[in-house]
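Sharing a chain and its predicted structure for anyone who wants a worked example. Both blocks are below, sequence first, tokens second.
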Amino acid sequence: MTLCIGAIAWEQETNTDCIVLCCDYKVSGDECASETQYKFQTLSDQLVCMFADSAGRAKEAIWNYRAYLPTVQLTQQDIADHLLYPILKLKLRLARSYVGRRLGVEYTDFLANGAAWFGVDYHREYIKTIEEHPLRLQLVIAGFIDAVPILCEFRGEHIELCDSYAMIGSGAYIAEPAMHAREHDKNTALLRALYNVYEAKRLAETSPAVGQITKMFVLRPPEAHCSRIQVWVVTTEVENHLQKLFEEYGRKPMGRIPEFPTNALVLGKW
């Protein structure tokens, strides 16, 4: 599938929070794959996202966000509700499409009259199918509200506000232990956070679902008298430096097996 990582960090030079973002370019179908999918997208002046799973579903959700977010005033208290609304709109559209395609009726009419028209069991079966219909959509949403970093994760169930880092995609199961091993938290210095995220992504490349290309960004709060967050792209020079650090501190081949003490094992009693 893919891997996208977001991590909150602390920029000591400016004494402000920032957010490190990282993703690959891998996109795959049932029988083939390529590294051609750009997964970083803007949602509003305050928020950006990265996506995994179905690119088509992600594009529809992003359009929903871009239409909805300018109409509301986001606060830290209600942001999870507002970020869920465009996904609910996508879910409703899929339900309407499914019922209309299969039965030729409007979804609202089916909810109200489906049991009488098609029978209780048939109606219940369709409702169950709609409830279990996978969205095939995962998102990392990041940005700032009043200079406070916002980092959210959606893995197909609900929006979760994340305290220090978020990740989506098949590679998350490998990358998350790497972030734990580096003891990353929201107070981690930016330069260290860049390496932590880079290392987690590189380790996750052992999964065939994670691509080899790495793209990284740093989000900073808006400058004075500006409402738009700053998006900084990590340069090739820094990526090369991160590669050298990974070669030094990351996964290393063991070489020859080291010698162990002769009394390393004792016979157990059974």
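Comments welcome. The mean pLDDT is 93.
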